[in-house]
Amino acid sequence: MLAVVLLVVFQFDTSYKAFLQSPRSEAVFVGLTQGRYKISDFADDPVVLWFWRNTANDPQADSLLMRTHFRRNFHISAALRWEAKEADDYETAMNKLNLASHLDSSAVENFLSFLALAAKSRKVDPVISALALPVFTDFRSQIFFIANGIVLVFLAFFMCGFVYVASKTVYYLPVISHRIDIQEHGRLKGIIGLVALLFPVLVFRNLFLIFVSYAVLLLFVFSKHERNLLRGILCFMIVVFVFSLPLHDLMLFLSKDSKSYRLYEMVHYDNSMTLDSDNEQEKLFEAYALKQVGDLERSMSLYEEMYYTGRREIAVVNNLANIYFIYGEVARAETLYSYTMRAGSKGEPFFNMGLLKLRSLEYSESSRYMAEARRRGFSSSSTEPLDIMPSTSEFYRILLSEKLDLFGAINPIFFFASLAIFVLSFLPYRFPPPFYCTTCGRAICRKCQEAEADEIICKECFAKLKTTENVEMEQLLRHSVGNRHRRMKRTIAYLLNAIVPGAGLIYLNKNFSGLCVVYLVMLTYTPLLLPQFFVKPAGWVSLPLSSIFVVIAVVVALFAYVYTFLAIRGVHGD
Ligand SMILES: [Zn+2]
Ligand SMILES: [Zn+2]
After folding, report:
1. Most-buried pick from 3, 357, 407, 492 (CB within 10 A)?
2. Which ligand is nearest to the CA of 444?
3. pLDDT at residue 572 above 70?
4. Ligand 1 centroid – CA 441 distance (Å)
């Protein structure tokens, strides 16, 4: 059975609305504008502070808000990021972002906004603020990075394959167009063939269709090594596809459209939402949420149910002990704390025990436990016992237990077309060699070849060489024709490489190093080239991220250009 969403109300929002409708808001407004009150008088009332910053745009209210304590609030944090986005100068944007991350420290949007601000203003401070946020331990942020990581790896593989096929097409296009014309091999007919072969580029507005048509065409001329590389790329695409099966569930989570998201929201954000748990696993979440909204009775009965059916995770035992502590059942609380302190290495139970000892005025015992908590990396200024949140692994268990949707995230056409090319690559049919004249580099076939000693040359070269009178002249002619060919080849390599670093190396048959460079470059280019494929969580508000991607892409491209152009210069064209 599906869980019922009882109520999705943000507690802060409710009290804020109540305040706006009460006569108090009027009195506070008048008092503050006339100077009878100071905003610092309301330092511990976030509702008034929020009201005053919104009506009077007073920066002092913002700095006071920085000192108040909130449960994570997604919406207010998003509103502040919006203000940061609209801000005219660096200082304002930075202040807004600081407040936004104070209200929701684990939101990945805040982390990325800081980085975007750093990239845009070329300053280091925002990077330091970003790295101080506990973003990577947060479940939603992890899901964001995993989902987009899979998309990035997949797209970069595809784009890498695309560049490979494109560079090889440039190299083999004369051969293929020569072979299309099965009768006489004239130059004009070759040009007609060439135009026919450019058809997919001109007609298809889709990178994938272009990739498929030329990949199939190239199978007729590829050498064994080149085929294997194409198979490798296709194989990786298929493997990444298999690994991306849970991607659809991750995307549903990020679009706030799944049960695991509602559980996450219930546990992490400021709201009064509770879900009825459907199974044992979800009880942990429900009990925690009930405790957060103050329903101690129901929370306690759930925790007890779990405890007496044998669940002894620290998050169960510690939180149950906390409720006993609040109810004044000190002995029971102490037994449970002792159990959790023996069972795990978390600092919270020690802290809570220390608090308990403090209440019963056993000061030296208390400070001993507090020191133990600090030794485990935990300290807090709280005067209430602290609960342990359901861990991220619990969330993963829930998320991965959701139904897998085979083709939810990736269009099946991509998968089957890749598979089809992979299978086709094993068919034995190939165009018979020779492909090129060894002297002038023109595309030839068996019909228009002339065998001269042990090398294969075209009829034109053969005729030219025949007219020469002696061996020296022949060598000279051969050399000059060959030079022209080499220069041409190198120019094309440079041009291709200028478009995508690494493509020139692939053109010159330095396939592996070329592919590595292209893949690295594509990892940084795809967020800019194909932003529509990346997953944006629902309610996304952030500073534009393109500035981050541009900085990364420029740095990587710079290194890639230097490396590849030097490598091309080192290749002896023949
Ligand atoms: Zn020739
Ligand atoms: Zn021919």
Report:
1. 357
2. 2
3. no
4. 6
